[in-house]
Amino acid sequence: MPLYYAAHLDWFHRYLGGEPSPIDPLRLVRGTGFVTDKAVGK
């Protein structure tokens, strides 16, 4: 569901000028959408 939501926000941002998605849909597809510095121990 997060990918679905992020993809819709990305589409609206690109084509209709809305707010950008807080999470990059491509990062979600690659499995790194929720990786933070804390998650990797930095």
Summarize this structure as a short list of keywords or feature phrases:
mainly alpha, single chain, 2 helices, 42 residues
Please report which band the strand proportion falls in: under 5%, 5-15%, 15-25%, 25-35%, 35-45% or over 45%.
under 5%
Q: What is the N-to-C order of secondary-structure elements (H for helix, E for strand)?
A: HH
Oligomeric state as shown: single chain
Q: Which of globular, elongated, flat, extended, rod-shaped describes the shape?
A: elongated
Whole-number mean pLDDT:
84
The biggest sheet, with number of strands, parallel, antiparallel or mixed sense and barrel status, is: none
Spatial separation of the terminal alpha carbons: 28 Å
- The number of distinct β-strands equals 0
Count of discrete domains: 1
Helical residues, percent: 40-55%
Radius of gyration: 12 Å
Low-confidence stretches: none
Class by SSE composition: mainly alpha
Q: How many DSSP helices?
A: 2
Plain-language structure description:
Helix content is 50%, strand content 0%. The chain is mainly α. It has one domain (1-42). The radius of gyration is 12 Å and the shape is elongated. The protein starts with a helix and ends in a 12-residue tail after the last helix. 2% of the residues are buried.
